[in-house]
Design brief:
- The complex is a heterotetramer of chains A (345), B (327), C (523) and D (369).
- In chain B, 39% of the residues lie in helices and 20% in strands.
- Chain B is an alpha/beta fold.
- The radius of gyration of chain B is 20 Å and the shape is elongated.
- The termini of chain B are close together.
- Chain C is an alpha/beta fold and 523 residues long.
- Chain C is 33% helix and 26% strand.
- In chain D, a hairpin with a 5-residue loop joins strand 1 and strand 2.
- In chain D, helix 5 packs parallel to helix 10 and helix 5 runs antiparallel to helix 13.
- Chain D is 68% helix and 2% strand.
- The chains are: A mainly alpha (345), B alpha/beta (327), C alpha/beta (523), D mainly alpha (369).
- At the A-C interface, helix 1, helix 8 and helix 9 of A face helix 2, helix 3, strand 9, helix 4 and helix 6 of C.
- Bound molecules: adenosine-5'-triphosphate (2 copies) and magnesium ion (2 copies).
C-alpha cells in the first residue's frame, strides 16, 4: 500500500542518483552503539583484572555459574528494555516472578506436570499478568510506574496466597536442563544463557527491523506524534508489557532452576531493580525512544560479574552493591558525555 | 517430632488462627514470627496450635511478609490492642522490639521471646531452641568431622544484622580456633534470605578458594543453597557442608551427600513449648528448674538468672532421620 | 480591539456549495461540533473542499481551525455532525482511518521522533515492508526524492531529526505528509516558522499537488499568503464557520473584517523618538558558528527590528543579549557601560527582558494559573525579603495585566493550558512587562497570533517604547517588521547588513534579505 | 526598574468568579460534587478515609474485629505514619521538581544517616540536638550528591538514585561491620518515640513523633511550597523547566535544593527510626521492600503527578492516614498470616483505582491538581 506514493506533477526530481547513493550508506558501521563498545571494554577489563586477582576466575567452574545467574536478569531486562523504549517501566516483574515460580513449582510437585508444559504454563501466566499491566497502562492511560507499583502489590498478594504460608519442597531436578550440571550445557555453555541469547537476537531483530519494533521507538520518542502518524499506540504498548510478562514467565523457570529443591516466598525479590540496573547500564534511555537489547545483556553480565567478583576476590560481599552503584553512574555518565559531544559536534 | 500439628500449609493461611476456642479459663497466646511463609516458623505454628488443642488455650499467629522490624512492630501493636494474655515474639531486631515489649507489659500482657532473644527487654522468659554455644559447636563439629578435622571453610550467612546468626558465628569462630587448630574460616558472606544468592556466593567462594573443603549455610535459606552449589560444581565428597536447614528442604542434599548434616532442633516442639510457656506465664505459674511439658517434651531446663527456657540440645538431622519430620 | 468597530453582517455573500463550474467535492463537513469540557471549540461548522483546490481556513486564535482539522485527521472525534468523502459518508474515529482514506495532515506543532532518522520519521506508521521487515533501502530512496522535493539535502535521510533545526523539522513534517496516496493534504500553519525561500518551495509543492488533483486545506495567519496560493477561503469565528468565498472576491482587509467581525481602521502611527544617548549598543558582536560583526544601537523609546530569515542568526543575537548564549567577540553596552549577562537572571537584573520565540516550549507553564505564569519571572519583586510570596500583590499584578492587555479569561487563576494561542502569548508578554524593562527584546512577538491580537500587541509595544523602553524585535514576519519598527536592520548570513528607516517597502527589504542589495546601495 | 508598571486607567473591576458561581442552580450540585470528587484528589482521599474509618468502626462495634477499632488504636497506629509522611513529602519535593524527578535512595539515606546519628549520639557522646543537626546535615549531604548529579550534571533521577541507593546502603552496612548501634543513650532515646496521653475521652495515646517530627515537617514543607518563592520556582521548573530558565529562574539550583531537602528529611527520618527502634540499624531503611517504594507510593496516591509540577502536602498526609488506618484495621479484621497479605491487596487496589481515576478525570476534565 505504502509504496504507491503520491508523485508530484513535476515528475521525479533530477539528480536522484547521487543522492540515493549517498543515503543508502549504513546508518552506523556496525549494529552496535558506543555504549555497547564501552561496556564490552569494561567487562573485558574486569575479567582480566579478576583473572589476575583469582586465577580460578576464567575457568568454566566460575564463568558458567555466572552465566546461569545472569540469564534470568538479562531475560527480564530484555522485556524491560522494550518497555523502557516506549517510555514506560515495570516495577512489578519481581512479583510476577514470584507468582509464576510458585504456580509452576506447585504444578510440578503436586500435579507432576512435565517440564515443557510447566514452562509454557509459566510463560502463559506471565503473559496474563503482563496483559493486566498492559491493559491498565495502555487503556487506562496512567503512568506505568504508578500502575506497576499497584500491581506489584496485587501480584505479590496472589503469589503469597498460592504459597499458602509455606514453601514448596521437593522440586524435581528436571529443570537442571536449563544449565545446571553437564546435562544443562551444550559445549559447556548453559542452556538458559543460550536461550536468553536467542531471545535477545530475536528481540534485536524485532526492534531494529520490523515496523512494529520501530513503532516502539516512535512511541517512546513522542506518543502523541506516533498516534497521529497512525501507529496503534495502545496496542503496541500493551504488547510490550505482554512480551515482558512472557519473558518473565520464562525467567521464573530459570530462577527455579537456579535455586534449590525448595522454593520460598521471597523468590525473585529485588529482581526489578537488578533488571532496571542492567537496562540503564546498557545505555537505554530511561526517558524512552532510545535503547538496545545488546546493551541490556551486557549490563546484566557486568552486574553479575561485579557481584561474583567481589566475593571471589574475598572482599566484603556488601561492597558489591557499592560497585554496582558506581558502575551505573559511570555507564550513564559516559552516555551523557557522548550525547553532549554529538550535540556540540 | 511426630508431626502432631499436621501440615501447616492449608490453602490460605487464615486457618492458622484458632480464634474460635476462647472458652472460660482459656488464655490467648499470640506468637509473632520474624516472617511468615517459611517452613521453620510455620512448623512452630503447628506445634503451638497442637499445644493449645491439648492444654486448652487460644493460639494466635501472625507474621509479616518480609523480615522487617517495622512490619513486625505493627503486628505486635495490633496484638497489644487485642489484649492477648501472653505475647511471644521472635524479634527481627531485638533492640527495637524491647520498647514494644515494655509497652505490652505495661498493658498487662505477659511477654516472652522465642527463637531469637531480646535480652535487654522486659521479657519474662526466652524460649530457647538450644544454647548459642550448643548450636555453634554442633555446626562446627558436624562440619569438621566430615572434613576430617582440618581444612579451610567459609560461612554463607543470611541477614547481615541478624543477631542470633551473628552470635552463632562468633561461637563458631572461637570454637574452631580453640578445638580445630588446623581448620580456618576463610570468609563470611551474607546472602540475605535469597537461596539463589546463597548458591551463587557459595560457588564464588569455591572458585576463589580452590582448596576450600567446607561450607556452612547459616540459616534455613542458605543451608540448601550451599549444598546445591556443591552439587552443581560436582564437588560432592570433596567439599562438605552443614547448615541450619529444615529437614524437608535438606532431605535431597543429605541423601546425595552434598550436605553432611543439618543442625536444628525439633521445631514443632519449640512451638509447643512456646505455647505452653505462654499459658504458664498467663496463669502466673513459676517455671521449675526442669519442666515436663508433654509426653514428648520432658526435662526442659529453666535458668532463673538468665530467664532462659531451654528446649534441649540441638538435633543433628541426617539422611536417616530427615524423613521423620514433615516440615 | 479598539480600532475595529463592529458592523452588520458581511456584505459579500459566501459561495454556495453549488457554485457552478467547480471541481467535484472531495471532502465536506456539515454541522460538526466539538466541546472540550465547558469550551465549545467548534459549533455547527460546515465546509466543503473540492478536488484540486487550495482551500484556506482562517480565523482568529481560538476560532476553532485546529480543532476542525483535528476532526478531519482523526486526532479528535466530533461530538455531532457528518463528514462525507468523495460523496460517501464516512466516520473517522482515529488517525489510522484518516490516513487510510487518504487524508494526510501536517499539524501545527511538528510531530516527530527526535531519536529516529528523517527517513524513519517520514515512514513511521506506513513503513515499506519486505518479508515482514522494514525495507530500509526502498524507504531511504523514496525519502531522498521527497527531500529533494521540499528542498532539503538528500543526506538528511539518515540523520536523526533531533539534529535538524525547527524549520527543517517542519519541512520534514511536510515530507511525511506527502508519503502515501493522499487525496487531501491538511497544512496547519505550515509557514509560521518557515523562511520566505522555504515558503516558496512549499508553495511550489502545493501547486503541483493541487494540479494533480489533490485537495489542500491550508491554515495560516499570514493573510497575504492566501492571495498567492489559495483558491477558496473559509472563515471561522468563535467556533463557527461564516462561509466560503472564492479568493477573487476577497481582499486582505475584507478577510480581516470577516475574522474579527468588524471594520479595520488603518491608523498610521506617528512616532517621534527623543534624542538621547543609546540605551543598548551591540558592537562588533560575534558568536562563533552563529553570527559575526553585529552592530546595533537602540535609543530609549526606539523600536528597532532585526529582520532575518530563520537560520540567519537573528534569534541567536537576541539570545546573547538575554544571557542565554555567550558572545565570543565584541561588546554589549548598556547605557554606555559594557555588560555581559551570563544568564537570563543576570540579564534581568540589568533590566533586560525577553519574550521567547517558542511560546509553548519556552514561555508557558502549562497547567499553572495566569497569575503563576506572570509572577514566575518576578519572584524577588513579588515577595518579601525574596522569600515570602506576597500573594496579594501577585494577584493584583495579574489582574492589572489581564485588564491592560485585554486577556480573555474569567479570572487570574485560570490555567494557561486552557487558553488560545493569542491569549497565552499575551500572558507571556505580560511577564516581560511587570518590571518595566530598560531593554525589551521580543522574539517573534506575534507568531501564531491572529490579526486582532497582533494589532493589540503592536500597540502595547509602542506604548512601552513611549514610556522610554528600548525595544529590539527579532522577527521573520516582514509586514510586522515594517509596520511596527522605527528602524529595521536586515540580518543575513549571521551579520547585520542593510538598515531601513520608516517607509521601507516590502520588496526592498526582501531583496536585501535575499542578498540582492549590496553594501554600496546602503552606503 | 524595580517598580511595577502601573496598569492602564482603572476600569470597573472584573467580576469575581465567586459571584458567578453563586448563581449556579441547586440542580448542578450533584454534578459539582461528583466533579470535585473526581478531580480533587484531596476530596477523594477524604471520602475514602471516611469509608475506611466508618467501615472499621461498624465492624468493630458488631464484634467482627479481633479488638476494638477505636480512637486510641488509631492514634497509636500513627507511629508508622511518621516516617511514611516525612518520606512521602521528600518524594513530593523531588517528583514535583519534574524532568522525571524521583528518589529511590531515601531508604538508603535513612540507613546511612541512622549509623551516623548512632555514632554521634550513641558512641561519641554528642548532645542530642547536635546529633540531630548532624543527621539533618548528613542527610542533606547525601541528597546533595543526588542533586548535584541530577541538576548540574544532567543524570536522570531514577538512575542516579538507583545508583546511590546501592552505594549508600552498601556503605551503611560496611561502616560499622553490619553491627547495629544500641548503646545506652540510644536505648533511652526511645522515650522520645513513646506516646503521650492527650486528654480526650479516656486519654488518647498520641505518638510523640507525630508532634515532634511529622506535624512540624508537614507544616514546613507546606509553607515552603505554598508561601515562598522556592515553592513557586519548584512548581515552575516541574511544569516546564525550559520556560523556567527563560523566565530567569535558576533551574539547576532549585532542582538541586529539592534533592537536598529530600535528603534532610530522610536524615530526620533516620532520627525518628533510631528512636522508634531504640537502635541505629545499618539496614533501617532498606529491609524488606525498603522505605523508598512505600514513600513513592504514598506520594503518588496523594496526587503527586509523576510528570512533575503538581503535588500537595495535604494529599500526602491524607494518603498516609488512609493507608495506615486501613492496614491497622486489616490486622484486626483478618487474623493470621493472611492479614499482612490482605494489606498488600488493599494497597494495590487503592493505588490502581486512584491512578485509573486520575487517568479518567484527566481526559474528562482536563489536567487537575
Ligand atoms: N534504523 C535505521 N534507520 C534508517 N536506515 C536504516 C536503519 N537501520 C538500517 N538502515 C538502513 O538499512 C540498510 C541495511 O541495514 P542493516 O545492515 O541493519 O540491515 P541488514 O539487512 O541486517 O544488512 P546486513 O545483512 O548487511 O547486516 C542500510 O542501508 C541502512 O542504512
Ligand atoms: N485539548 C483541548 N482542551 C480544551 N480546550 C481546547 C483544547 N483544544 C482546543 N481547545 C479550545 O478550543 C478552542 C479552539 O481551539 P483551536 O486550537 O481549534 O483554535 P485555532 O483556531 O487553531 O487557534 P490558533 O490560531 O491559535 O491555532 C480554543 O478556545 C481552545 O482553547
Ligand atoms: Mg544486519
Ligand atoms: Mg491552531
Amino acid at each position: 500500500m505504502s509504496s504507491s506514493t503520491l508523485t508530484p506533477a513535476g515528475g521525479a526530481p533530477a539528480g536522484e542518483g547521487e543522492h540515493t547513493a549517498q543515503a543508502r550508506g549504513r546508518v552506523l558501521p556496525f549494529p552496535i552503539t558506543g555504549q555497547e563498545i564501552v561496556l564490552i571494554a569494561v567487562i573485558v577489563a574486569l575479567w582480566i583484572a579478576l583473572w589476575l586477582g583469582t586465577p580460578a576466575f576464567l575457568t568454566s567452574g566460575s564463568i558458567v555459574p555466572l552465566l546461569v545467574a545472569m540469564a534470568p536478569v538479562a531475560l527480564i531486562g530484555i522485556g524491560m528494555t522494550v518497555i523502557i523504549i516506549t517510555g514506560g517501566i515495570d516495577v512489578s516483574v519481581a512479583s510476577m516472578v514470584m507468582v509464576c515460580a510458585v504456580v509452576v513449582a506447585k504444578a510440578m510437585v503436586d500435579s507432576g506436570v512435565s517440564l515443557p508444559v510447566a514452562v509454557l504454563l509459566s510463560m502463559a501466566l506471565g503473559g496474563v499478568l503482563g496483559l493486566v499491566n498492559g491493559v491498565l497502562i495502555a487503556y487506562g492511560r496512567v503512568h506505568a510506574i504508578i500502575i506497576t507499583f499497584g500491581t506489584a502489590n496485587l501480584f505479590k498478594f496472589v503469589g503469597l496466597q498460592v504459597f499458602g504460608g509455606s514453601t514448596v519442597n521437593g522440586i524435581p531436578d528436571t529443570l537442571d536442563v536449563f544449565g545446571r550440571g553437564a546435562d544443562g550445557r551444550t559445549l559447556g555453555v548453559p542452556h538458559s544463557f543460550l536461550l536468553m541469547l536467542v531471545i535477545a537476537a530475536l528481540a534485536w531483530y524485532y526492534l531494529r527491523h520490523t515496523p512494529s519494533g520501530r513503532h516502539l521507538y516512535a512511541i517512546g520518542g513522542d506518543a502523541d506524534a506516533a498516534r497521529l502518524a497512525g501507529v496503534k499506540v495502545q496496542r503496541r504498548v500493551l504488547s510490550a508489557y505482554v512480551l515482558t510478562g512472557l519473558l518473565t514467565g520464562l525467567a521464573a523457570c530459570f530462577v527455579i532452576a537456579q535455586g534449590t529443591s525448595t522454593l520460598a516466598p521471597n523468590v525473585g525479590a529485588g529482581m526489578e531493580l537488578s533488571a532496571i540496573a542492567a537496562v540503564v547500564i546498557g545505555g537505554t534511555s530511561i526517558m524512552g525512544g532510545r535503547g538496545s537489547v545488546l546493551g541490556t545483556v551486557l549490563g546484566a553480565l557486568l552486574v553479575q560479574t561485579v557481584a561474583s567478583g567481589v566475593t571471589q576476590l574475598g572482599w566484603r560481599s556488601q561492597l558489591a552493591s557499592l560497585f554496582i552503584g558506581i558502575f551505573i553512574l559511570i555507564a550513564v555518565g559516559a552516555d551523557l558525555l557522548r550525547q553532549r559531544a554529538r550535540r556540540t559536534a | 517430632g511426630e508431626g502432631s500439628g499436621g501440615s501447616a500449609s492449608g490453602g490460605d493461611s487464615g486457618g492458622s488462627s484458632a480464634s474460635g476456642g476462647g472458652g472460660g479459663g482459656d488464655y490467648t497466646v499470640a506468637f509473632v514470627p520474624k516472617l511468615q511463609g517459611i517452613p521453620y516458623f510455620e512448623a512452630m505454628n503447628s506445634g503451638g496450635k497442637a499445644a493449645c488443642e491439648e492444654i486448652g488455650c487460644t493460639w494466635l499467629y501472625q507474621g509479616p511478609v518480609e523480615a522487617d522490624p517495622a512490619a513486625q512492630a505493627d503486628i505486635v501493636r495490633s496484638y497489644i490492642q487485642q489484649g492477648v494474655d501472653s505475647l511471644i515474639v521472635a524479634p527481627n531486631d531485638p533492640d527495637s522490639m524491647a520498647p514494644l515489649l515494655k509497652q505490652a507489659a505495661d498493658a498487662g500482657i505477659k511477654v516472652a521471646t522465642a527463637d531469637t532473644d531480646a535480652p535487654n527487654s522486659v521479657r519474662e522468659v526466652f524460649v530457647s531452641q538450644a544454647s548459642t554455644e550448643g548450636i555453634g559447636q554442633a555446626l562446627t563439629d558436624g562440619l569438621l568431622s566430615a572434613m576430617g578435622g582440618k581444612g579451610k571453610y567459609a560461612i554463607v550467612s543470611c541477614g547481615q544484622t541478624a543477631q542470633n546468626l551473628n552470635s552463632w558465628i562468633d561461637v563458631q569462630k572461637a570454637y574452631t580456633a580453640e578445638k580445630y587448630p588446623d581448620a580456618e574460616i576463610v570468609d563470611i558472606v551474607y546472602a540475605g534470605e535469597d537461596q539463589a544468592a546463597a548458591t551463587q556466593m557459595a560457588t564464588d567462594l569455591m572458585n576463589a578458594h580452590p582448596d576450600l573443603t567446607g561450607l556452612v549455610g547459616e540459616c534455613t535459606s542458605s543451608a540448601p543453597g550451599v549444598a546445591q552449589a556443591i552439587r552443581d560444581a560436582g564437588k560432592i565428597g570433596k567439599v562438605f557442608s552443614v547448615g541450619l536447614g529444615t529437614p524437608q528442604s535438606m532431605a535431597p542434599y543429605l541423601t546425595d551427600g552434598s550436605s553432611s548434616a543439618s543442625i536444628l532442633w525439633d521445631v514443632e516442639n519449640l512451638g509447643y513449648l512456646t505455647a505452653w510457656t505462654g499459658v504458664q506465664l498467663a496463669d502466673g505459674q513459676e517455671l521449675q528448674a526442669t519442666n515436663d511439658v508433654s509426653s514428648d517434651i520432658t526435662g526442659v531446663t529453666f535458668d532463673p538468672s538468665s530467664k532462659v527456657l531451654l528446649l534441649g540440645p540441638p538435633l543433628t538431622i541426617t539422611k536417616d532421620n530427615a524423613g521423620d519430620y514433615d516440615y | 480591539m479598539s480600532d475595529i468597530s463592529p458592523t452588520g453582517s458581511a456584505d459579500t455573500a459566501p459561495v454556495q456549495s453549488s457554485t457552478s463550474g467547480a471541481a467535484a467535492e472531495r471532502l465536506s463537513v456539515t454541522g460538526v461540533s466539538k466541546r472540550y469540557g465547558a469550551v465549545r471549540a467548534i459549533r455547527n461548522a460546515d465546509m466543503t473542499v473540492r478536488a484540486g483546490t487550495v482551500h484556506a481556513l482562517v480565523g482568529e486564535n481560538g476560532a476553532g481551525k485546529s480543532t476542525l482539522i483535528k476532526i478531519l485527521s482523526g486526532a479528535a472525534t466530533a461530538d455531532t455532525g457528518a463528514i462525507t468523502f468523495n460523496g460517501r459518508p464516512v466516520t473517522i474515529s482515529g488517525t489510522a482511518d484518516a490516513i487510510a482514506l487518504g487524508i494526510a495532515t501536517v499539524y501545527q506543532e511538528p510531530q516527530l521522533f527526535p531519536d529516529l532518522t528523517v527517513a524513519e520519521n517520514v515512514f513511521t506508521g506506513r513503513e515499506i515492508k519486505r518479508h515482514g521487515r522494514v525495507d530500509w533501502t526502498a524507504q531511504n530512496a523514496r525519502v531522498v526524492e521527497l527531500l529533494e522535493l521540499i528542498g532539503l539535502p538528500a543526506r538528511y535521510a539518515t540523520v536523526p531529526v533531533s539534529e535538524l533545526s525547527i524549520a527543517e523539522q517542519q519541512q520534514v513534517s511536510i515530507a511525511k505528509a506527502l508519503v502515501g496516496n493522499a487525496e487531501v493534504l491538511i497544512l496547519d500553519e505550515p509557514s509560521a516558522i518557515l523562511t520566505d525561500t522555504e515558503i516558496e518551495v512549499l508553495f511550489g509543492v502545493v501547486r503541483r499537488l493541487a494540479a494533480s488533483g489533490v485537495s489542500i486545506i491550508y491554515i495560516s495567519h499570514r493573510l497575504d499568503e492566501l492571495f498567492v496560493i489559495a483558491n477558496e477561503v473559509t472563515v471561522m469565528r468563535d467556533g463557527q464557520t461564516l462561509g466560503t468565498w472564492p479568493i477573487g472576491e476577497l481582499s486582505v482587509r475584507r478577510v480581516v473584517e470577516l475574522m474579527v467581525g468588524g471594520i479595520l481602521e488603518d491608523n498610521p502611527v506617528e512616532r517621534s523618538i527623543p534624542d538621547a544617548a543609546p540605551r543598548l549598543v551591540l558592537e562588533g558582536l560575534a558568536c562563533t558558528g552563529e553570527y559575526t560583526d553585529v552592530d546595533v544601537s537602540i535609543r530609549p523609546g526606539e523600536i528597532v527590528t532585526l529582520y532575518g530569515l530563520i537560520g540567519s542568526g537573528a534569534a541567536e543575537i537576541a539570545e546573547t543579549v538575554y544571557g542565554m548564549r555567550r558572545a565570543t567577540a565584541g561588546r554589549i553596552l548598556l547605557d554606555g557601560k559594557p555588560v555581559s549577562p551570563g544568564s537570563p537572571r543576570e540579564a534581568k537584573k540589568l533590566g533586560i527582558a525577553l519574550l521567547p520565540a517558542n511560546r509553548k516550549l519556552q514561555g508557558l507553564f502549562g497547567f499553572q494559573s495566569i497569575a503563576f505564569n506572570i509572577s514566575a519571572g518576578h519572584l524577588p519583586l513579588l515577595s518579601r525579603m525574596g522569600t515570602w510570596m506576597d500573594r496579594g500583590r501577585e494577584r493584583q499584578v495579574a489582574r492589572d495585566f489581564i485588564q491592560r492587555l485585554a486577556v480573555k479569561t474569567p479570572h487570574e487563576r485560570q490555567p494557561v493550558s486552557a487558553m488560545s494561542g493569542g491569549n497565552a502569548q499575551k500572558v507571556v508578554l505580560a511577564r516581560q512587562l511587570v518590571e518595566r524593562p530598560q531593554v525589551l527584546v521580543l522574539a517573534e512577538p506575534t507568531q501564531g497570533v491572529d490579526v486582532g491580537a497582533k494589532e493589540e500587541i503592536h500597540k502595547i509595544i509602542r506604548q512601552l517604547a513611549d514610556e522610554g523602553t528600548a525595544v529590539l524585535i527579532v522577527t521573520s514576519d516582514l509586514p510586522e517588521a515594517i509596520r511596527v519598527s522605527d528602524r529595521l536592520q536586515v540580518v543575513r548570513a549571521g551579520t547585520t547588513t542593510v538598515e531601513f528607516g520608516p517607509g521601507a517597502t516590502q520588496s526592498d527589504v526582501l531583496a536585501a534579505a535575499a542578498g540582492a542589495v549590496d553594501q554600496e546601495e546602503a552606503a | 526598574m524595580s517598580t511595577a508598571v502601573s496598569p492602564a486607567p482603572a476600569q470597573a473591576p472584573q467580576p469575581e468568579d465567586g459571584s458567578s458561581q453563586s448563581r449556579s442552580r441547586l440542580g448542578q450540585l450533584p454534578a459539582t460534587v461528583l466533579r470535585a470528587l473526581l478531580t480533587q484528589r484531596i476530596v477523594l482521599l477524604l471520602v475514602l478515609l471516611l469509608v475506611v474509618v466508618v467501615t472499621m468502626t461498624t465492624l468493630s462495634s458488631n464484634n467482627y474485629l479481633a479488638a476494638p477499632y477505636d480512637l486510641s488504636y488509631m492514634s497509636s497506629a500513627l507511629i508508622s505514619a511518621v516516617p511514611l509522611v516525612m518520606l512521602g513529602l521528600a518524594e513530593l519535593l523531588v517528583i514535583t521538581s519534574g524532568r522525571g524527578g524521583i528518589d529511590l535512595s531515601v531508604g538508603a539515606i535513612v540507613s546511612l544517616t541512622s549509623m551516623v546519628f548512632g555514632f554521634a549520639y550513641g558512641e561519641w557522646g554528642w548532645s542530642l540536638w547536635l546529633a540531630i543537626l548532624l543527621a539533618a546535615a548528613f542527610g542533606g549531604l547525601c541528597g546533595a550528591v543526588n542533586g548535584f548529579l541530577i541538576a548540574y550534571v544532567g543524570y536522570p533521577a531514577l538512575i542516579t538514585t538507583l545508583a546511590t541507593y546501592y552505594a549508600f546502603s552498601s556503605i551503611a552496612i560496611v561502616i560499622n561491620d553490619q553491627q547495629p548501634i544500641s548503646t545506652a543513650p540510644i536505648q533511652d532515646f526511645f522515650s522520645t518515640a513513646r506516646s503521650i496521653e492527650v486528654p480526650v475521652g479516656d486519654g488518647l495515646p498520641i505518638p510523640l513523633g507525630t508532634l515532634t517530627f511529622l506535624i512540624p515537617i508537614a507544616i514546613v514543607v507546606w509553607v515552603l511550597l505554598n508561601r515562598t518563592t522556592f515553592g513557586r520556582r519548584l512548581y515552575g521548573i516541574g511544569t516546564n523547566d525550559v520556560a523556567a530558565q527563560w523566565a530567569g529562574i535558576d533551574v539547576r539550583r532549585t532542582r538541586f535544593s529539592a534533592y537536598v531537602l529530600a535528603g534532610v528529611i530522610s536524615g530526620l527520618v533516620a532520627v525518628v527510626t533510631v528512636a522508634q527502634f531504640a537502635s541505629a540499624r545499618p539496614d533501617a531503611g532498606v529491609t524488606g521492600t525498603g522505605m523508598a517504594l512505600p514513600a513513592i507510593t504514598i506520594a503518588v496516591l496523594g496526587g503527586v503527578a509523576i510528570t512533575g509540577g503538581i503535588g500537595r502536602v495535604a494529599g500526602v498526609v491524607l494518603a498516609t492516614l488512609l493507608i495506615v488506618w486501613l492496614n491497622a484495621g486489616i490486622l484486626l479484621a483478618v487474623p493470621g498470616n493472611a492479614g499482612s497479605q490482605y494489606q498488600l491487596l488493599a494497597l494495590g487496589v487503592v493505588l490502581v483505582f486512584a491512578a485509573l481515576l486520575n487517568g479518567l478525570t484527566n481526559r474528562r476534565y482536563g489536567r487537575t491538581g
